[in-house]
Amino acid sequence: MSQLTRLRLRLTPRAESAVVRGHPWVYQDAVKDQNRPGLPGELAVIYDRRDRFLALGFYDPDSPIRVRVFQVRKPVQVGVDLWIERVRQARALRETCAVFASGTSGGRWINGESDGLPGLVADRYDTTLVVKLYIPGWLPVLEDISSALSQELRPRFLMIRLSRNLAAIARDHWGITEGFRGDPGEDTVIFEESGLRFESQVRLGQKTGFFLDQRENRRRVEAMAMGRDVLNVFSYSGGFSVYAARGGARSVTDLDISAHALESAQRNLKLNASHPAVHSALHHALQADAFQWLRDSPAAQYSLAVLDPPSLAPREANRIAALDGYARLAAGGIRVLRRGGILVSASCSSHVSDQEFFDSVRRAAQQSGRSWLESWTSGHAPDHPASFPEASYLKAICLQLDP
Q1: Structural domains in the chain plus CATH codes
Q2: Could you tell me which residues are beta bridge partners of residue 398?
Q3: pLDDT one-digit tens code per residue, 48-102
Q4: How, if at all, do strands 302-307 and 337-347 pair?
Q5: First-to-final CA distance of the chain
Q6: CA 57, CA 74: separation in Å to the nearest integer?
Q7: Where are the beta strands (DSSP E) in 202-319?
């Protein structure tokens, strides 16, 4: 790659304007011309219509997002010092927001493009830092970014994970595989969140091992759980259930199609059994398809239901079907709630807008024939900033039935 001339691109006027405004993605059809074919992971310099430097980013010929921009307007020297500066800025934001306050040793340090490090997330679990890479641009500079993260965040253990689409090229072209760099840590790490203990399967778990982005909503559920029978649908590792139990729930029921997920939820409850409220809450586990169970189970069994499905719209083509799915889930959740019950429904689909999602849940409530009151809506947690529309994926809405 070093023997090639620098990859130079020019964009359509519309795309050029979007980059100037700070949008970090350049799509395939936005590239008007380039001086040669680009290689996966190499740096691309974008020039404006007057042949002036416009931006710098990582090129990927195999993705519809051709360039992930990390620098605009002012040229910079790409190296460890630049990555140190970006990591330092991200750390300062989390320190300002007190993400890692007393009782919390799990959270996100780096959130990709929104922290100026596109295609990279870094999550802290106690003394282990899990870095997940989604684009090939980080593979040739892995030593530099690893050094920057280690220097600024000072983890005891550093785990590198790769997205599925990246694993083969990382292995075949750069000899990079997933695993700990430096001293080997444990594959399962126990960390704290809001004074509660959870396990993160940092090597094999989904995402980086735990769904840290729902922390604020878990706290909201805890505040509403006193004396309630709580149903946690798509429970995964039981985060909402543990919070609800500490909040004084009479019972918590985890519903998931995965036996492995239900076992993880049981372990997380046991990790917090020393807390009197968690210990006294009854716990049930249901292994079933959520859509079918919500449709066919007896009505009015619970007084608080949490619906937190995986993304129902991984692509734009799935958006309409996803909205129907969210509406069906909300209808089922409402059906199993008693009078005065609370519904908390969440979406992690970036292709579904906040308004579309909220409206689908509201329509389900309207069509139920029951009276309802909207209590709150929420978006991203402070350690998961979203600086451009496509990065905004998380939203939740809370309704009280028969208020």
Answers
A1: 7-72 (2.30.130.10), 80-190 (3.30.750.80), 211-401 (3.40.50.150)
A2: 344, 376
A3: 999 999 999 999 999 999 999 999 999 999 999 999 999 999 999 999 999 999 9
A4: parallel
A5: 65
A6: 13
A7: 229-233, 251-256, 282-287, 302-307
